[in-house]
């Protein structure tokens, strides 16, 4: 009986402790002082980072695995150089060494170098130089991102967001007029070179400016919930391509996105292997929804379609070497290699630790059921990130991810920001 | 005698009634006056220093620059936030124009649309409790007068306002706000989700003259779920400045030129 009384007392004490805890926590909170505001915390125009990585890739066709290492130096500058005039410079140097290769592979990517003029109030903008003009809200595939092909000199990650970070812009003249709730921009990108270059310090204009191109983009905010862009794209020798992208807020926690283009151009297999350039009229489409939980997890489910890509029967007709060539070139062109695919992309902020983030995705090939699984654990310190990435390609022989030489890739990275 | 009583009674009622009316402004007036203390009437920028604590221990600091204005069309309060520190995030932008919310990274030129819940994950959302225009988005009722402790541990006589969202597109479904009865300064707020879950408790403190009015220069933000998680937001460098309406849209983000 005494024991029971004691347990009741303890229960009451515990309950009262629970009730008073928030009040005590508030008292404690009011004792806290902010970190000092220092003059050094003025915005800097230049941002540097250096990244080191080591990776191991187990192979599908040999018992040996491939070890590789990489060092990358990255700089981004954006600053005013006169009244209404801004200069932007963005550059990345990658030095890569892999087993079985005699020398390092070195590639410098001048991502952006342009002048931006905003006369008067800033509603009119004129840009000239190498500009990374990026469009489209899709996560894994961006049909309305018309300047995506050939923009990557080095592929260092399977993360679609990292790929966008490393890509080069095209040399162009661009003008934009902004108004309340919308904008119109016109960009012209001329042909400046014929072929891509593998020289370390080459500007590689043959990758980004190998034909005359132009795009008109009309951005409209229809409401607080719906936002869209309508794009008209033309490149030399082809009919115009029409594109639309849109985002919509579905609820407090859900955002939908879509991209759609329709146009006439040679099929993807013709662009890869050459041949008689007969044009076909097809659509490209991406649609997805991102849902965020109160537990700091975001899920994105996306459907991807490329009417210009080979279907499973068409790809099955290719030999292994040709299939690999098709996949490799599709990646270089930032095209969807299968006719359709599905992407599940997940991010979890503060996994176990406050500064530990988990990012991962699975990409399913809708034609042959093969899949790519990619996971990243990233811990942030104030100026340093430590990252572990795992990639697994699975599928039957001859499938998109079952044919790739790399079976599993493990990569550890350290990135210092300064 | 009776006519004399009536003669005195009605003027007294009138005087006391009028006095009562002057002494007790409406909930809407209190809220509008409180908003005006937190938010300068003109477009402005300020530096925000965030200091995060866990169980009383400082675990992180970050610095943002906030550019805010009330939109000419619809009166929507909107803000563009530029990350300054840490270096990893320097130059990234966060736009909030009602429920049109975007995150922009200048390195990959990607504009990612955010849902209100997604935005709550980041520290930038803490700015909402400091600078949002409550009178536009909430219907206030006067829930009473109470004595409460302010952020500097002084007991203040305060109006307690119960705010209910008038549109579904706001981050917090309901808010309890305590406003100083003497000068309409916001003292403390409790911000709730639609599920009635307490998301944040906020104290407004360290009032100093900024842009012509005494304004709070620090907010103490206590996490509703984990009261050991506290963020201090320090507001400095208030400056009136030209911020056009056209800044507050996705297509402007790649164009943003900091001073």
What does this structure look like?
The complex is a heterodimer of chains A (about 425) and B (about 260). By secondary structure, chain A is α+β, with helices and mostly antiparallel strands. Chain A folds into two domains: about 70-250, no CATH class; about 250-418, Porin. In chain A, about 15% of the residues lie in helices and about 50% in strands. Chain A has helices at about 1-30, 160-165, 205-210, 270-275, 310-315, 320-330; strands spanning about 45-60, 65-80, 85-100, 105-115, 125-130, 170-180, 180-190, 215-220, 225-235, 240-250, 255-265, 280-290, 295-305, 340-350, 355-365, 370-380, 385-395, 405-415. In chain A, strand 1 (about 45-60) and strand 2 (about 65-80) form a beta hairpin. Residues about 1-5 and about 10-20 of chain A have low confidence and may be disordered. Chain B has about 260 residues and is α+β, with helices and mostly antiparallel strands. Chain B has a single domain, classed as Lipoprotein localisation LolA/LolB/LppX (outer membrane lipoprotein receptor (LolB), chain A, Clam), CATH 2.50.20.10. Chain B has helices spanning about 1-25, 25-40, 115-120, 125-130, 135; strands at about 45-55, 55-70, 75-85, 95, 100-105, 110-115, 140-150, 155-165, 175-180, 185-190, 200-210, 215-225, 230-240. Chains A and B meet through helix 1, strand 2, helix 2, strand 6 and strand 7 of A and strand 1, strand 2, strand 3, strand 6 and helix 3 of B.
Gist of the model:
The complex is a heterodimer of chains A (418) and B (259). Chain A is an alpha+beta fold and 418 residues long.
